[in-house]
Predict the structure.
Amino acid sequence: MKRRDREKGNIRLVNDTIYLDPNGGVLSHITCWRPRSGDPDPEHPGEKHVTMNYRPTDAGDPCPCGSGKRFGSCCQPLPYWRPVCPNPGMQGYSLIRLQSARFTNILRDEVYACLQDNKRLYCTEDTPHRVFWAYWGDPAIDVRHGRLCFGDFELQENHTLLITALSDARMEALLEVVRPLKLGTPQIQVEPVQYVEKPGRKAPTRKRRRKS
């Protein structure tokens, strides 16, 4: 990757990773809500927009996966990328582990009132059969493609609440929203971690020691 590209920070991927430096950064998943053409209220985006970005990272930097290790001794030497996503409030990054929490036999009206009044949530759909909120956080964070979304709440007509998040850190933040309702223990489902193979993998370069 060229130096001027590294200085830009995040680089949006189109469909191909072949031109990326396999050892110079990580893939970062970004989800935003943004206005649609003809939206009556531009302040409230109307569609979800998902991008995968390349986040340049130096070997000595903390690894974006959240392990606490240096990038050079964690994700950099792997033959594949482990995509990450930003934590709520942009407090670091975490490995992507798509997961859901399902609460059943809930008091629908009570849950609806709680979520509808929460300033960290934005209701994107409200019908008798389904109510859907996006978690923006407080304060909401605007980026180039729209307003960052860190997870979803779906209130279903069968007295079920489904919470969906891309990482452990995000799920913890979303569960905190409904904790005062004391809904009980949810059914947790976690999808396997998805890896992205690196193109033409090269071994990380090391500086040669000068002979004394």
